[in-house]
Write a structure and sequence with these properties.
The chain is an alpha/beta fold and 712 residues long. It has 25 helices and 29 strands. The structure holds acetyl coenzyme *A.
Length: 712
């Protein structure tokens, strides 16, 4: 029995392979995999295993894995589910390091226990499982095609990790058509043991792999994946396609933060935070892979569009806005730079319109001018087919200019649009790895992706900001509530938690008698609000438990008696702790800030527009914790209503720093206080700069003893 995990290198570079269930029948999966391994040119030792013995594809067959050599790095299991455990056990007992369990019929069809049994046995014996329910894997480093795909995988520098088997198999052919070369392709299936994080650990150091593409459906151990991704994106771009924008998991959540944190929004935010680029389609992902492999990513900015068509130039401008490609806008410099290449009826404003009469020479003149101008950071060159441009010159013009830009390290992307001749140029240039696309949006998406990645590389500060909070006080409040059998905090406990975290609250006191109520109101200053405090009364207004805008001591006395009278009459059993007397909060911008433990990615924070319409407006953004103040500010800038904080229509700028501070404090609680699973402040009212913000309403859920959330 051993807990030692084999080096992941042996999965990608095995020195020997056993195919358990290697079949004599050519149409069976166990035969196809063996055939691909042989035909793919794998240079290590191959052991077909089949109780019938004999010979398959010229290789002698061992009747059991025990009959094969001792040192087996990789096993490929292709026997039916009911025999899989025995086969896995035999492989583990023989000391094999990795096992690709091709077999279906486990957790994906509800057979969870058998999958656990198989994985547990393997783990106890130091063997790691890929799958089950996979099509296998390809590794260029070992010339290994252990898949039951069509064969003929085109080697190259893009590594693909896929949770969808069918999509992955189809990608084998598609990548060849799209001229995407593969360094590794791994089907992860049910991810019973090996997951994306394990694979990326190898791929990020692999010299052949320049770009990693992941197709993900669901994430387990998300916080570990995020750690690995954050490190891996420092060395190579990672592109993710994720399906399943379902909010199903969020429906049951007990807070706004939970229900707004639809898994997809959180996924999107945390991937961006790690520097992972998210593609909306397989095509976009392939484009990004092709474009980014071998290209040095830069931060971008000051991009110029050069076109022979106004319409396509406008389309490209729109696309630049969508993909955050900043266009250069110094009109004077643009005029000086492009005047010599532009006819009088053209335009030197960005887009530079060379007009429909532009020839190959005109393009080259304009592209040279953009290349030699150091203020211009990148170029998008668009071409619409015209009769005056000799189509035979198109490929040459593009290839020559592309080479000059490549040599100078200035990014350029081309987009061409036209008939058969143009399409032929497009296909030929794509084959020669020139950055060219048929669609303007595809073109700009690639450039935008590269800039985003370039910014990520440049902004690697890795700072973590935490606040000083009273962790002991938080634990005490949570512990007392739990001792009373509650999974949530009452209002005054939530306020105590805010005080322990250093988040400003409206002034408030718990009055236990009439004299105290009047005294507290005078201390706070009028107007005040009063609310009943009782664990048994959740909807205070419904039972007359709230009085607002009380202007003087007489009104406080009346309200005190009215609240108590009404609550006692309508809920005679309710245990009343007293009456809260609080400052009447002046108006400001109502925000929502929250922090919770996400089921997939661990601690996250949320920021957005607060108030009662928060779930309708859904103007919120997310980040994984830990994070720094700059990241919080970035998260805040993402929401549509952010300009309200900067001040609109003559209003003053709001105290943004105090909001950043509140988010950092919530992040610290959720990271440092395991008893708290979900905190939400709504509204957090932000005032003008220098006046801070106040947590008006606080809702806190506690972690249950099993580590999950407890419902309020
Ligand atoms: N050790 C070695 N060989 C064995 C053993 C054993 N313990 N038990 C049986 N075998 C042999 C059989 O004799 C047979 O060889 P033969 O054809 O020479 O007689 C061979 O193993 C295969 O066994 P079969 O019972 O014929 O099984 P079959 O090939 O029909 O199916 C398979 C096995 C492919 C693993 C199937 O159970 C399965 O799971 N298929 C789905 C695979 C899949 O789709 N995976 C996900 C991919 S991703 C996607 O969605 C595309």
């Amino acid at each position: 029995m051993s807990d030692d995990r084999p080096d992941i290198r042996y999965l990608f570079e095995p020195r020997s392979i056993a195919v358990v269930g290697a079949s004599h029948s050519q149409e069976k999966i166990g035969h196809k995999i063996l055939q691909n391994i042989v035909n793919g040119g794998y240079r290590g030792k191959i052991y077909p295993i089949n109780p019938k013995g004999g010979e398959i594809l010229g290789l002698p067959v061992c009747r059991t894995i025990a009959d094969a050599a001792r040192e087996i790095d990789l096993v490929c299991t292709c026997v039916p589910a009911k025999f899989a455990f025995d086969a896995v056990r035999a492989a583990a007992d023989s000391g094999a390091k990795f096992n690709l369990v091709i077999t279906s019929g486990f957790s994906e069809v509800g057979n969870v226990e058998e999958e656990k049994r198989l994985t547990a046995y393997a783990r106890r014996h130091g063997m790691r499982i890929l799958g089950p329910n996979i099509f296998g894997m390809f590794s260029a480093a070992a010339s290994l095609d252990a898949t039951f795909g069509p064969g003929g995988i085109r080697p190259g520098n893009v590594a693909i990790i896929t949770q969808s088997g069918a999509l992955g198999l189809a990608m084998i052919g598609k990548t060849a058509v799209e001229n995407v070369g593969i360094s590794a392709m791994v089907s992860v299936g049910n991810k019973a043991d090996i997951d994306e994080a394990d694979l990326i650990t190898y791929l990020m150091a692999d010299e052949i792999t320049q770009t990693i593409l992941m197709y993900i459906e669901g994430v387990r151990n998300g916080d570990r994946l995020l750690d690995v991704l954050a490190t891996a994106t420092r060395s190579k771009p990672i592109i993710v396609i994720k399906s399943g924008r379902s909010k199903r998991g969020a429906v049951a959540a007990a807070s706004h933060t939970g229900s707004l944190a639809g898994s997809d929004d959180v996924f999107d935010a945390v991937m961006r935070q790690c520097g992972v680029l998210r593609a909306e389609s397989v095509k976009e992902a392939f484009n990004l892979c092709k474009f980014m492999s071998g290209t040095k990513a830069v931060r971008g900015g000051n991009t110029v569009i050069i076109t022979n068509g106004g319409g396509i130039g406008v389309l490209a401008t729109d696309a630049c806005e969508k993909y955050k490609v900043k266009l250069y806008d110094d009109l004077e410099v643009l005029r000086e730079t492009f005047d010599p290449a532009t006819p009088d009826f053209g335009s030197t404003k960005n887009p530079i319109d060379l007009t429909g009469q532009a020839t190959s020479a005109d393009y080259t003149l304009a592209l040279n001018a953009a290349l030699s101008n150091e203020q211009i950071g990148a170029v998008i060159a668009l071409y619409c087919e015209t009769a005056v441009f000799d189509a035979d010159n198109l490929s040459q013009m593009i290839e020559e200019n592309s080479a000059k830009y490549h040599a100078a390290g200035k990014p350029i992307v081309f987009s061409v649009f036209g008939g058969a001749g143009t399409e032929r140029s497009l296909a030929a240039l794509t084959k020669r790895r020139i950055p060219i696309f048929g669609d303007v949006y595809e073109t700009v998406a690639c450039l935008g992706g590269m800039f985003t990645y370039g910014r990520h590389l440049a902004d690697q500060t890795h700072a973590v900001d935490e606040a000083e909070i009273d962790v002991t006080a938080v634990a005490r409040v949570a512990g007392e509530a739990r001792a009373e059998g509650r999974g949530f905090l009452l209002a005054h406990e939530g306020q105590e938690l805010m005080r322990a975290a250093g988040i400003p609250l409206p002034q408030s006191h718990l009055a236990r008698n009439l004299d105290e109520a009047v005294r507290f109101a005078e201390e706070i200053g009028f107007p005040v609000v009063m609310k009943v405090v009782s664990r048994d009364i959740l909807h205070k207004s419904d039972v007359g438990g709230v009085a607002l805008d009380l202007e003087n001591p007489e009104e406080v006395v009346d309200a005190y008696q009215a609240i108590l009278g009404s609550c006692r009459a309508r809920m005679p059993q309710a245990r009343i702790r007293g009456i809260e007397v609080a400052e009447m909060v002046p108006a400001g911008v109502e925000l929502i800030v929250g922090a919770r433990r996400d089921g997939a990615f661990g601690p996250i924070v949320m920021f957005g527009m607060g108030g009662i319409y928060v779930e309708v407006l859904k103007d919120v953004s997310f980040r994984a914790v830990p994070l720094d103040r700059a990241e919080v500010l970035e998260m805040m800038r993402e929401i549509r209503a952010y300009p309200l904080l900067l001040g609109v229509r003559g209003e003053e700028r709001k105290d943004i720093e105090s909001v950043v501070d509140a988010v950092i404090r919530l992040a610290t609680i959720i990271r440092r206080c395991p008893g708290i699973s979900d905190i939400e402040v709504n509204p957090l009212v932000a005032y003008e700069q220098g006046l801070g913000s106040k947590a008006v309403d606080v809702r806190v859920l506690l972690t249950d003893l099993d580590g999950g959330e407890t419902d309020a």
